[in-house]
Amino acid sequence: MALQALQSSGVAFRKILSHFPEELSLAFAYGSGVYRQVGPSSDQKNAMLDFVFTVDDPVAWHSKNLKKNWNHYSFLKVLGPKIITTVQNNYGAGVYYNPLIMCDGRLIKYGVISTSILIEDLLNWNNLYIAGRLQKPVKIIAMNENVALRSALDKNLKSAVTTAFLMLPESFSEEDLFIEIAGLSYSGDFRMVVGEDKTKVLNIVKPNIAHFRELYGSILQENPQVVYKIQQGRLEIDKSPEGQFTQLMTLPKTLQQQINHVMDPPGKNRDVEETLLQVAHDPDCGEVVRRGLSAIVRPSSMKQSTKGIFTAGMKKTVVYSSLKLHKMWKGWLRKTS
Question: Of the ranges 1-15, 102-116, 223-237, which one carries the lowest mean pLDDT score?
Fold first, then answer.
């Protein structure tokens, strides 16, 4: 099962986890502090560690965390756990980040998301924010026996493969596929224009081909629409209109709706299935799918970044943004030297 490839037994991560309330349905670490990247994020030892904590009851969890880690929060802490949860759930991508925290001798950033909101994002790609993180290799540190969550995690990976297929030619390499998958959640992300290294996706994939293969190998082998030549690292897919229509019909609901919006002339109000049939016959099918992705990611990433000013506080926002810009500058210098 693909999900098993996400598991980790990292003692250092679990030590950090011990500083937080225990009621977690899922906890994972991700980013350049966990998996080696090339380029400006290659200093793994000193990189900030990124975590996401998924909780069933955000009000109760924040209430306990405020008692344990009061200084992690911005000025919003004085408003209490209910307001913090309202900000978390109702603005941006449904996640509340506390960045630039020293914990167990490491600089960390952690986000808190409701289990129900994460499941919705994994299944429907409402924001493709935390769902996008989980399409790339992560270290799962804790996970309870929530069957719906486990099923949604698996469905998210399968949706990522199907979406990538629609944007690739008939024959391609594993690396081509993994680059397309890793880039899904960056489609239209304004941070790729300001604040992130432009070669970020390549830098994520190239040193981690084996981890991507571990994550997606069983899905690719079981998919009836692909010929997976494991020894050569090559894949062939069905690019007929019929094959593409089958793939389009299994896409997450929000992406289907955005594709419909992209293609639907004003006032016509066609149903989604009719639009997807038209897209399946369109030579620019992949580009239409990409535009649909951008329509999800762009507003989600902008709102989440704006929300970060309030959840992190102005001082931390300035420091965090300057670190991102410094990393982007290093990447630019590396390319031009």
Answer: 1-15
